[in-house]
Structures are given as C-alpha cells and as structure tokens.
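Table S2 (text version). Query chain:
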Amino acid sequence: MAQRVAIVTGAGGDIGQAIALRLARDHDLVVLADRDFSAVKELAAGWGPQFVATAVDVTDPAACAALAATVVPLGDLAVLVNNAGAAKGVSLHATTPASWQADRALNLDAAYLTFQALADLLKAAKGSVINIVSVNGMGIFGHPAYSAAKAGMIHLTRAIAVEYGKFGIRANAIAPGTVRTRAWEARAEANPDVFAEAAAHYPLGRIVAPGDVAEAAGFLASPLAAAITGVLLPVDCGLTAGTPGLARTFSQSADY
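Corresponding structure-token output:
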C-alpha cells in the first residue's frame, strides 16, 4: 500500500513542530514545509527518516505547485495542515497598505494557493485539510489585518468542505487562543508579565500550549473525525466562551 503522507506548512515554528510530531504517530511520512529550509532541514535530520524537509514560500503559486510535485512520489496525501502564519500591523492606525497585503497574503491567500495546488492529490486520497486560524478571526484581539485574513480563512475552510465534500475531502479549522511561541518573544521582553496577564482572561486560567493545538489536529486528521467537516474548533482555554473578569464585573458575583 502507498505511504500515508501529511504536510505541515510553517513547520519550523513551535506550533508547526508540535503538529508534525503529532501527525507522525498516524502517518508514514510528514513533509515539513517552510520558507526557512535550514530550520526544517535541521528538524528532519534530528527527528529521522519519517520526516521530509522542503522549502516552500506558500505565498508563491509556483512554489506551491513545486510542493505538489515533491509529494507525488512520496505516497498518498492524507492530510494538509495550513499552519504558516504571522502578524504585522498591531492596530488599524499602525497598519500600512504594505503590511495589510503582507498579512493577507500569508494568512489567507497562502491557504488557498496551497490547497489549490494540492487539491487533486487530496481528492485521490480522500484527504483532510486542517487550517490553523485564530480566535482573532472570531473577535477583536488586535492585529486587524491578520484577524481579517484569519476570518477569511475560516470561510475558505467551509467553502472547501462544501464544494469538495463530494470527493471525500474534509476541511476543518482550529482557532488557537494565546500560544506561547517564539512569535511572542519581543512582547515578552517588553512586558515579562504578558502571559500571566493574558491567562487572567481565560476561564481555565492558563494559555494554550503548542501540544494542545497539535492534539486537536491529530483528532481532526484521524478516522475518529470521519463525519466532521466544515467545523471551526476553538482551542482557546475557554476565551471565546466568555471572560471570567467581565462576568464578575457584570454580575458583581465572586462566583466568577
């Protein structure tokens, strides 16, 4: 039988690494796709032959087509995880046309371009698409261009689920809350209490770990989720359910 292959874009980042390691439990090969080839090459070398590193700029249609050509000889494409993402403008006032377009290109256009390039392979294997979005796509938490792109990515997920379901393709989205990753380094240096301050807004009293996102991806990629498609799954320690401090203020009850 052909090998089952999973692709993770943005695999060099903390969330991408966690997802790749989780998917390796259920797949024969995991393709670590990242613009920073040296980073994923080092990871693949350290993790072993089950991992294949490849350089991909997911905002470039030609690079996405080359990714598809790389996967063909490896086996059946069972899972595509569109994980690559980053945020630039922190507010509308601070956003420029250039930063708006950069955020849109990486956080929305890239997911479309990658899926478009790999759609035929996913159809052949009745594969699963998992888009890593954000709670920012569900509410206002700063970084407006990034947030608008993630909201678009949520809609793209549903579009794939509805249009490509007839081919056996499932598409779902995971919306993490605050995750402690290297992307937070500058903010943590400026404010060492930033994670504690963030955790105070979460019902579980903590922020999300990369492994939390990875386990959700592992579930959505598995046969256990065979009837689940078009779903947005928040992995946010309860943030989008409500804020304890605000409930306490509104109710004037210490029970919150």
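Notes on Table S2: The chain has a mean pLDDT of 96. The domain at 4-189+207-242 is CATH 3.40.50.720 (Rossmann fold).
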